[in-house]
Amino acid sequence: MPFIHSLTRLIDPVQPEPNSKHLFLLPPFVSPLLFPNESSDARDHLANERTFLSWLRLSVYMAIVAVAIVLSFHLKNEPSAIEKRIAVPVGLIFWILSFASLVNGCANYVKTVTKYGRREALVQSGWKTQIIFTVMACAIVATCVLFLTTESRVR
Q: Whole-angstrom Cα distance, residue 155 to residue 152?
């Protein structure tokens, strides 16, 4: 049993760690962080994990779309010349957005868990999240419009 206790870290919100700003960098590195369950802590942690997993899922979807665009994936016919010309830049944009989504999800998760450890977490979305969502939405809409207009010119 002492071995298992050496692999976990109990976070005491009353007496925070001396370097609690970087809670994830404290040894043991791959250990679960244990928080005392008071009031709605368990619910909040699970909600934070679900939010991170949603960011991760969005990142994977964007990466799949980026690869599909770069490969000029078509089911019925060959891609047009303009589609071949814009495939790499648009795919690169989606790949960058995928990476931004992953970084934003990780940063939000680490920041929120660190604040939970100090009992100062505030559930809200920040301006970085709003900017990334706005850029992603604009890129998706612009790409849809671009593909629809190039498809109508081909016919």
A: 5
- Separation CA 58–CA 51 (nearest Å): 11
Q: What is the pTM of this model?
A: 0.70
Q: What kind and span of H or E run contains 34?
A: strand 33-34
Residues 6 or more apart in contact with residue 111 via CB below 8 angstroms: none
Q: What is the pLDDT of residues 4-33, one digit of tens each?
A: 555 555 555 445 555 555 666 666 555 666
Cis peptide before 28 (omega within 30 of 0): yes
